[in-house]
């Protein structure tokens, strides 16, 4: 069996250091930490096993204080995490991630639970899920 290397970058462009991120592949958490200002590269290897898989990113610790709003309800500043440069074995998945990933959140408790496409930015406590199958290269050919 072969290993598949997952790698991606998480960026926090704010000066806040209290948003946290969990990263999971199926039931294995491979990252759980606050994300300091700046960027961090995260890598994880898994063994191909001819199974369905779920890659999940969970944003946590976001509060109302992280979002500055004016009297008209316009967002003046916000604290978000950006996920980019997603690669499986050095094959870029940014476009495929946008097409297949789902972002589920409830606007930090202010609205009903919603699901939407994921465009690389996590601004609400919630989870982004990306489902794929291995062997990965076969799945990739079928989903390009």
Question: How would the blueprint of this fold be written?
Answer:
Blueprint: E1 3-12, E2 20-25, E3 28-34, E4 38-47, E5 52-60, E6 68-69, E7 75-77, E8 81-88, E9 91-92, H1 94-100, E10 102-105, E11 114-117, E12 121-122, E13 126-133, H2 136-143
Antiparallel strand pairs: 1-4, 1-8, 2-3, 2-5, 5-13, 6-7, 8-9, 8-12, 10-11, 10-13
Account of the protein in words:
The chain has 144 residues and is mostly beta strands. It has a single domain, classed as Lipoxygenase-1. The strands form three sheets. A six-stranded antiparallel beta sheet has the order 3-2-5-13-10-11. Strands 1, 4, 8, 9 and 12 form a five-stranded antiparallel beta sheet that branches.
Summarize the structure.
The protein is mainly β and about 140 residues long.
Keyphrases for this structure?
single chain; 144 residues; mainly beta; Lipoxygenase-1; six-stranded antiparallel beta sheet; five-stranded antiparallel beta sheet; 2 helices; 13 strands; elongated
